[in-house]
Amino acid sequence: MTLAQTPTPTVPRTLCLFTGTLAAFAGAERATATLANALAARGHRVHVLSLWGHTPVFPLAPGVTHHAMFAERVAFKHHYLSIVRQVRRYAREHAIEVMIDVDPMLALYTVPATLGLPLQRIAWEHSTYASDLGRRARRWARALAARRYDAVVVLTDADRAAWQAHHSNARAQFVTMPNPLGIAIPDTAPEHNDERCILAVGRLVPEKGFDRLIDAWARIAHDAPGWQVRVVGDGPLRESLLAQAREAGVADRVEMLPAVADIAQYYARASIYCLPSRRESFGLVLIETKAYAVPVVAYAADAGPRALLHNEVDSLVVDDGDIEALARALFRLIGDASLRRQLGLAGYAHAQDFRADTIAARWEALWAGSQAPEGAR
Q: N or C: which end of the chain has fewer CB within 10 A?
């Protein structure tokens, strides 16, 4: 099912978002912090329970309580029973009414930890269903969540259909819910007339495809004087991407900057956003850049971009892997300021649907409409 927006607040609940960590700059972590803050602002008692990392990199509101079980990442399979006991103790001590696993993998801990407790269980999937990462444990955890949880929240209708197809006898309802926008939307659509920057944001890992952006940029850079590519993010490919830019002769036109919590400052200084990803389950960066009226050039690589982007309306979308097409789309926007503004304004209007308070209201409708659990399930 796809929930309709529900503006009416529900009775305040005691909630726990159970996650791997908040100590990393990544989309799921940002979405977790954003949702926690939005639910606290609506009067709920919100806890975030992390496996590791005592210090979140994203700010949490005063009404959000954060607790991490370990200071650093450990081999969790060697601490399995300890984690189950800690989750159970935390849920009981704080009288948790709704437990939200920020990854269905966490069902492997949550199900035994909450046996017999009077709470609702919801799994929040941030990957596409096809992205099981080759892990049998992930397939087991998804099956467990489908059988034992009240709901599984996914990011796109395509993934909801995949869950339904693979778990036809599920107890859980499968719900499409986009991630909340984690940055404030400017009151009016910003203008970017003086910026000559193509921005890309994300982890420097193969699936994000920044090598494809550099390839495309190398084909047009000499015809785009004054323009540059700016990539913001951390990860293991930093040096290889810089080397690629040097070999392509565009090192002086490619800027690599570290990840930051205040990513909005870079959207404000961009004229074009490029998403060259090989895989993208949702692409929260697309909504963030739309909030700043920045037009998007992207590959139609996965469910997220296909669901969030509207070709020739708020973006230019090209066939996955076609470097020449990506280069042409970027060059088209570089040379057409009026088209950049047209696409940017359409994106700005679309971003309004993802305001954190709006998405938080839809989460309230989800657990308010679910049956209360009856003992162990």
A: N
